[in-house]
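Quick one, tokens below:
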């Protein structure tokens, strides 16, 4: 009978013990590997989260990821039972256009007295130093990558672009140290390879984060700019509405008063009311001109006519225009003009506009004392300084003073008129002239605005490259003295009844015979029995376009030589060229400048020999 024992065989127990110990060691090493990688992944996630929250610069965020990888790998190696405690880990940034990489991060920097760590390239039989700023050739990195055991791992994106190199370097082990066992060596290789993969993934995610961050920042900046623009637009509309309604109220009110049945004011009163209506109308026109000027300047469409200007005469004329306003406020006007200044080259109309803007502002913000204009030469420049004894401007407001639509808060609260465009237009006009505008001011101590312009410009050439002559300025400044014959026939083609009445009354007062028609069909019918010396043509008609009518007139032999002057509300740059291209002789914009109208009609209705003085 056989006997069986429940006790294990002693020999089999002895044989199983090494296998069990090996399995435990492998599990422990595997646990170390996964724990180290989890710790690295967690640290990289923190870096990416920080990048999301703070939107750092690309270099700083990338540096944080690189340093995290270096630190975590070094920590894992030192906290394990692996005999790799003397290892250092570094990341070298690789630039594709170069054949070298530079070591940018190391897990620990050697002390000044110690030897730097190194990587040994067995096939090349040379040692590579691993320290900050050390340069490593690309061929050496590739050799480290291909050797066994592997010592370098590239960080490459999906397109194969290398973002860096992860390098592990081993110093010679001391005699007391034991060589790492085979499983640990394999796990070290796995740790480095997977760490390189984690690092690459983090860098790619960082790219997306920074890209979205930049887009978000751009969108945020755009939204802020849109919000600011919207606020300025609302402020501008509110100010403009006030500016328009105030003079309109005077125009409508006094007109209604003059038309009221039974009300018969004295001639002096009628004159006073008409002056108010005219002044209010000019204020409306100035407002519209400011808006149009700013639009033209920003679109580089402003026409500039250079001419030699008599500076003392222009300054006297400017002060004459504001004399009444200053007197109404009890302010003294002063003009200081150095005798050396006689002429300069500029656009006379625009120079007058700039000076008036500055002086009107000084009058608005000065309740007592004086407002003055001082003109002095400074090298090749002339300085027009407008000073006042008014309320002054704070440093905070001075920063925004030349921005379009900006108005000082206390001015708005005090009901001071204005749209916030005057100074912006003045500055831009000065820049077109090759000059600038400067401001000096203290609260409650007055202000000094200095318009700096060069003495000379290139005559006959516009700043925007054009070569046109501003006929309106020419004729307004130098009207033709001509008394027409009562036989001179003018054909007026005008759609708007008030404008038609105005031009008829004015031209008839000058002695012309005026025939008015309202549309194209009436014009053709009238021309069958009339030979006008000049045709005044409105552009917008109920049954056609005035410019098309001009082209049709030029196709008929009997009408081809009749001078045609168009009157239109189109006042932007390019409108005059469009009209001339259609075959018209000249152009005048609405509201109609009556002296200019008289000059143009006289020019084209008079015989050439008379115009030449023969």
């Amino acid at each position: 009978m056989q006997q069986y024992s429940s006790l294990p065989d002693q020999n089999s127990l002895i044989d199983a013990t090494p296998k069990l110990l090996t399995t435990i060691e492998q599990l422990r090493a595997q646990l170390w590997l996964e724990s180290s990688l989890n710790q690295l992944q967690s640290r990289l996630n923190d870096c990416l989260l920080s990048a999301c929250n703070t939107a750092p610069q690309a270099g700083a965020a990338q540096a944080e990821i690189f340093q995290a990888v270096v630190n975590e790998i070094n920590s894992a190696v030192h906290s394990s039972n692996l005999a790799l405690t003397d290892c250092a880990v570094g990341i070298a940034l690789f630039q594709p256009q170069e054949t070298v990489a530079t070591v940018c991060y190391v897990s620990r920097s050697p002390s000044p007295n110690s030897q730097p760590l190194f990587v040994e390239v067995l096939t090349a039989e040379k040692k590579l130093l691993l320290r900050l700023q050390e340069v490593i050739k690309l061929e050496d990195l590739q050799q480290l990558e291909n050797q066994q055991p592997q010592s370098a791992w590239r960080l490459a994106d999906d397109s194969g672009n290398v973002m860096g190199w992860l390098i592990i370097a081993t110093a010679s082990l001391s005699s007391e140290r034991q060589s790492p066992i085979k499983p640990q060596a394999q796990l070290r290789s796995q740790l480095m390879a997977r760490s390189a993969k984690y690092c690459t993934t983090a860098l790619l995610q960082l790219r997306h984060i920074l890209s979205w961050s930049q887009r978000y920042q751009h969108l945020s900046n755009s939204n802020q700019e849109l919000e600011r623009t919207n606020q300025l637009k609302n402020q501008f509309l509110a100010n403009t509405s006030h500016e328009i309604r105030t003079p309109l109220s005077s125009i409508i009110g006094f007109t209604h008063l003059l038309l009221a049945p039974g009300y018969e004011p004295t001639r002096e009163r009628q004159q006073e009311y008409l002056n108010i209506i005219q002044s209010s109308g000019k204020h409306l026109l100035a407002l519209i001109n400011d808006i149009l000027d700013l639009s033209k300047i920003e679109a580089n469409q402003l026409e500039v006519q250079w001419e030699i200007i008599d500076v003392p005469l222009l300054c006297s004329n400017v002060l004459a225009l504001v004399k009444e306003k200053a007197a109404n406020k009890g302010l003294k006007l002063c003009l200081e003009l150095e005798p050396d200044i006689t002429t300069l080259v500029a656009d006379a109309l625009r120079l007058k506009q700039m000076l008036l803007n500055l002086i009107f502002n000084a009058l608005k913000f000065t309740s007592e004392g004086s407002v003055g204009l001082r003109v002095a030469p400074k090298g090749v420049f002339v300085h027009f300084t407008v000073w006042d004894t008014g309320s002054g401007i704070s440093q905070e407001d001075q920063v925004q003073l030349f921005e379009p639509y900006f108005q000082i808060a206390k001015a708005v609260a005090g009901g001071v008129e204005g749209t916030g465009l005057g100074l912006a237009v003045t500055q831009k006009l000065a820049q077109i002239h090759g000059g600038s505008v400067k401001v000096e001011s203290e609260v409650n101590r007055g202000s000094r605005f200095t318009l700096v312009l060069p003495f000379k410009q290139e005559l006959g050439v516009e700043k925007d490259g054009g070569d046109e002559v501003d006929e309106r300025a020419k004729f307004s400044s130098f009207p033709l003295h001509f008394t027409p014959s009562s036989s001179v026939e003018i054909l007026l083609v005008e759609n708007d009844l008030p404008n038609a009445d105005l031009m008829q009354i004015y031209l008839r007062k000058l002695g012309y015979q005026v025939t008015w028609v309202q549309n194209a069909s009436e014009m053709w019918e009238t021309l069958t029995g009339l030979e006008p010396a000049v045709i005044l043509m409105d552009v917008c008609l109920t049954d056609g376009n005035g410019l098309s009518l001009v082209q049709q007139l030029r196709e008929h032999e009997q009408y081809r030589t009749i001078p045609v002057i168009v009157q239109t509300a189109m006042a932007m740059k390019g409108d005059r060229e469009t009209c001339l291209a259609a075959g018209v002789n000249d152009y005048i914009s609405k509201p109609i400048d009556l002296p200019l109208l008289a000059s143009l009609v006289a020019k084209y209705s008079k015989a050439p020999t008379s115009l030449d003085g023969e």
